[in-house]
Amino acid sequence: MTRMTRRQFLRASGTGVGVLTVAGLEGCATSTGEINPKAGRRVVVVGGGWGGATAARYVRAADPSIEVVMLEPNKTFVSCPFSNLVLSGVRGLGSLTFGYGGLRDSGVKVRHAAATAIEPDTRRVRIGDGYLVYDRVIVAPGVDFLVEQVEGLAAAQDTVLHAWKAGPQTAELAKQLSAMPDGGAFVLTVPPIAYRCPPGPYERICQVAWYLKTNKPKSKLIVLDANQNIVSKAALFRAAWQAYPNIDYRASNKVVRVDPGAREVTTDFGDKVKYDVINLIPPQRAGAIAVQADLVGADKRWCEVDHVTYESAKHRNAHVIGDSTIGLPVPKSGTMANAMGKICANAVVNLLNGREATPVPPVNTCYSWVSDREVIAVVNAYKIENGKVVQVEQKLTPGQSTVYAQHAEGWAKSIWADVLGNGGVA
Amino acid sequence: MSRARLGLLLVLLVLLGAPAVSRAAGPLDQPGYAKAVTCAACHGASGNSRSEAVPILAGLPPAYFKKAIEDYASGKRLSAEMEPFAKQVKLLGVDEVAAFFAAQRREPTPVRPERAAVERGRAAAAQCASCHGPEGQGDAAKMVPALAGQPAAYIRNQLLLFKADKRSPGDEPLTKMKAILKPIPDATLADVAAYYSSLR
Ligand SMILES: Cc1cc2nc3c(=O)[nH]c(=O)nc-3n(C[C@H](O)[C@H](O)[C@H](O)COP(=O)(O)OP(=O)(O)OC[C@H]3O[C@@H](n4cnc5c(N)ncnc54)[C@H](O)[C@@H]3O)c2cc1C
To answer: Which of A349, A395, A417 is facing B45, going by the closest CB pair?
Structure first.
């Protein structure tokens, strides 16, 4: 990221989130020094995605005497879950886009600005030249991309898309796919673990393959997977792929170079693969602000936390939730970020009131659409043992079905409302 | 609040010797609140699911709730989604979680079934009233759940499971209901589901 221009950085973050910029400040563009000195106790939430928005709402729900300020540069929330259906044309991006009105209704002060730095020692979150003081900060910036790990990618981000943060890139990739001539090759690359949403790339493979089979039957989908096998729900995805002979799946093929001029990617074995449309999902790490704030571990990628309170292992009074975390035996999913948001919010409220946090384990479910109407799921249950989250069980649906599709729709409706408040959901 | 007024307020607080922070009893004091918090991801706020196929948990009688959790955990009620969570709830303490949902006010589903289906379903539902009540309100003492206002697709899916004896097979108290359901065509069951879902 060090060599990137500001424009490239905005591209890389996909939705126009610039940690190094102060773009899009609403109502505080000219603030210098302390912004809104706090009167009582204050929680600052950095990031208004699945984890952060949930946490902000639940702190308010549990104790309305605590002031909650949430920083989120984007004016709208776009759901990554179900965004693979935008590529196949089964859903529109509008049906996945929501406002932050529900959070405001819960009394959360939403500021459309990016945190530019977190200073745990002085308990300050910087927004450009100004800063907010906090009692506790909840950091939920999601993921950022290790663009430099793929040669040629940094300079090619206008055309080589990840669409791994739902938003403009999702719409653009859908356009590229629909403009691809029949007989063309769509190349999709899967990054090495750990990355956001383990089954996500394989769900996307189903959606692109379904679209091609239905609309461009002479085309093929080449998958270059950096991992040795399908990372999640392998047997269920393989069964689903029986319906898509247009998939050419190649495991242990890590992409290390992209050449948009030649429309070609190179794998770590030196194999070159030509494409008409490329969807390159780069390797990932915690959102840049977590790195800046020294919340990441020795790997410089992910943040270790206490499994009961989500307090950082490195800095007191700073909590980290969602995709940025590591060390719990859980996937980087929206369901998980939402669960962590609630558990962390309740812990923060208890701690601010001088009480102990109740140990509560999270839950996980990831539904994946394997066609335009059928869904599979993986479910994980947990317990807390000696202060650590331990998996009790992982279960897969016995197959794919339209009943699970109904459940998936139900999940989406409930969880969007849970993250954003009913007012946020149309 | 301006800085000057804030300063004044702080001075006042100090003079009055009031604690700078105070906290009224909140949701965290409700038993089960913290432990039930993750269920909202599918079952909605306070267990009032707003979608078509995931059941409302608000107001379920604790005994029925606990039986459901037992049946999911043991695999008698087949659900890939609920089986792991049922085991998790048992480890967390099912009594507290059941008590939490029982205490929530039930808000009927906002999903309105088709009027014609509701009318068609009314007649066939007569056979159910002896147990589920004339208004589908259930009978907590007999562990019969309310059907009124549950989402229609959920009710229909459960009826198909009962009919095929896939939900809690061999459960003695359910043999009579299953016998009643057996001859009813699937399309009529969908209508009965619509009827019960429409009741308030
Ligand atoms: C294609 C796809 C499909 C998926 N499908 C599913 C699914 O079906 N089910 C499921 O459970 N999960 C799914 N996921 C995963 C899910 O989207 C993520 O796990 C979830 O978004 C993680 O939540 P989070 O809060 O950690 O991050 P995010 O939701 O990404 O939120 C982070 C927020 O922080 C903001 N931010 C970043 N930096 C700053 C800063 N410096 N200051 C202020 N704000 C900042 C960002 O703008 C962003 O809004 C999918 C993901 C993808 C890509």
So the answer is: A417
